[in-house]
Every structure is written in structure tokens, then in C-alpha cells.
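In this section we walk through a basic example: taking a raw amino acid sequence and producing a predicted 3D structure, encoded as C-alpha cells. The instruction is simple. Fold the sequence below.
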Amino acid sequence: MNLIEQFLRKVSYKFPKGYPDINDPKDWLMLEGMLKGMGIKLYEGVLNWGDLSSASRKYYRLGVIDDKIKQGSPFTLADKTTEEKLQYTDESYSELFANQKVEDIKKIGGTRINKFPFFKTSSGKEIGFNGLFKTKELGGTGGSKAETTERQERGLVDLINSTEGSKTIISKNGYKIPNVAKAGKFEGQSSTGTEPYSDIILYLEDGTELLVSAKGPSAPSLGGGGIVGIRALTKEGNNPELLEFIKNFYNKAYQFYKDIAKKEGLEGENLYKNKLFPDVSVKVPDSLITTLVRGTKDMGGPVDLYYIGSMDVEGTTQGNTVNITNGSFIPITDFIEQKGSKLYAHIRKRDGDIYLTDKTKDLNGVTLPLIFSNSPKGKGTQSRFGMIDKIRGVDIT
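The resulting C-alpha cell sequence is shown next.
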């Protein structure tokens, strides 16, 4: 028996099917994590759904696929050498990919989503995600941020700066920003070590700087900055009402899961892929929305404007006017007014082994339940905090 067989036999019990199914994105992520923990990095291979759909900034890659199909740009197939221009097997898929409608794509692809024939070659051969090689623009190594996750921000900066001198920006929704001297990319991380709230800085002629948070049409998060962001917002006794909200939410979520585990006899069991334990959400109180959405200087804010638009920025210039045709600037006050009534905080499960735990963690002097860990006695948290403009999982408000 070789070393690979020994390894697979040792870890197979961790997988729902009794073996790692490489066509299942969660199995693949688990396997990759185990190997990384041993210091082994997998070589670049075929594309899979996990490269496109995790709750991070991977959603934009769906738009990359749609752009390449519309532009007639070739894809590299799984054999790493063949290049083919692709079409959708159903034209309705274009709208789903362009607008990053992850849940709709998942419903169509089903349990075998990596093999589902979303695409076809010019000869009519149907292929799925696993028929494509994971090039750098689709998550492979070697791609710069300017070519991938930051192309929206870079495109917006380039369009604005293509007109010299003082200019007026008019976005798709008609919002005007006059007397703009130039635009720049907000560089670096926040002081918390996380992605900053702001992506772009607009420098006005009078010296004012407007901070902009840029999002795609389907943003994976809207403010909050995760639990690290909450820690920054509530340090040194700041925003005590926010800290109380988070404490109550985590306690309510823990009790929700605890009741299910007791009722179903699942205490101490691995809950990976168990549909009885959904992600949970609660409505964000109106009094906290501004704090969560704007952020602070330490978090790369406070944000003055949101920009919502396609990852590829389109626009025209005429004289000293820059017209953005596929994205809109929204003042933070208007954004809060539009989104405030439907902003939900959520706690979601991470990928991999999940065990309900009674362990706790400290958040600026307040004790929070850890909720999920990666082993029966582990301390590694398997739950994540976020905020978005819809209910994720079930509403336990």
C-alpha cells in the first residue's frame, strides 16, 4: 500500500460518502485543507464550483466566465493545452452568471454541479466546470489582484482619471459628484489586518477625500467586517449597544442549535452537511445600521459612498464629464435608507468538520459562545459572522 492509499484510508471516515469525492466542492476543500496542514500544496487543476461560489470575493469569477463567453475569448480546457471558445447550453444562463446568482446556478447544477453541462464548444461538445482548467483569472495561481478581485476598482479609477483636470462624475442612477480632481485605489489593509471597508478614494479640488466601498451586483457582504470588525467597533467601551446585540445574537443562535441537537440526538456528532442545522440570521436594529455600514478609520472607513456595478466598468467621457453607464454611486445616507429595512446579520457555518461546542471566546470583555468547532474538543471556530441585505438560512429574530 503506497502513502497516498494510507492517507486516504486514514481520513476517509471524515467524508459523508466514506471517501473524498473530488467532484464535490466541500469534499475537495476538506481534502485540500488536510493536505495543506501537512505542508502539501495541490498542483493547479480543473475548475470546480468552490472556486466560484464561496462567500468571499470569488463571486466575481462568474462574471469573468460570462465576459469571456460574450467576448468570444477562448477558455483553457482541463487538459491544459486545448483552447476553445464556449457558449452556454442555454442562453438563460448568461443572466445568472453575469449577475452572480449563485443560488439559482446551484439549483440548476444540483448535486453534480461540477459535471453539469453549462457550456458547449463550437462543435457542440457539452462540458461542465470540471472540463475547464483553473487559469489565473478563475482562481489559479499567478493572477494579480488588478487582473482579478480588484478589476472593478481599477477600472473605475482608470475611467475617472482618463479625463484630466477637474471633472464631474455622473453614474448610472444620475448621481453627480462635481469637482473631482482624481481617483485613487485605497491601498493596504485595515489596522485589524482585514480587507478595508473602502476600495477607492475620490480626491476633490477643495482637498476633501470621499471614501468609496465598491461592490458587485450581488455583494457577499455589506459592512460589519466579520467578528474582527465588531471587535474593532466595540473596543475600549465603544458602541456598547452593538456589543450587546452581538452577545444576544450569539447566545440565541447557540440555544437554537443546542435545542435541535438535543431533540434529534445529535450531541457530539459531526454536523457537516447536516441540513437540520441551517445558517441563522437576525434583523439588524435601525440604531446600529450606520455604525456597521460606515465603519471607522481603523477599519478603512468611514465610508462616504457605495458604488454598485458590474466588475467590468463601462462609461464614456465628454469634455470634463465622466459618465458611468453600468454602475451607480450611492451616498451612504441613501444606501442606509434603501437597505436599512432589510439588513440582516448572520452566523454561517464554515466548510469542513463541524461540532456543536460549549466552548466560549472573549469579545472585548463579553463572553460569546464559540457555537461550532472543528473537532469534539477543538477550539478552532467553525462559525462566521457577516451582514447582508437578505436572510441567510433561517430568521431567528
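Looking at the output, two observations stand out. The chain is about 30% helix and 25% strand. Residues 151-221+293-340 form one domain. In the next section we compare this with other chains.
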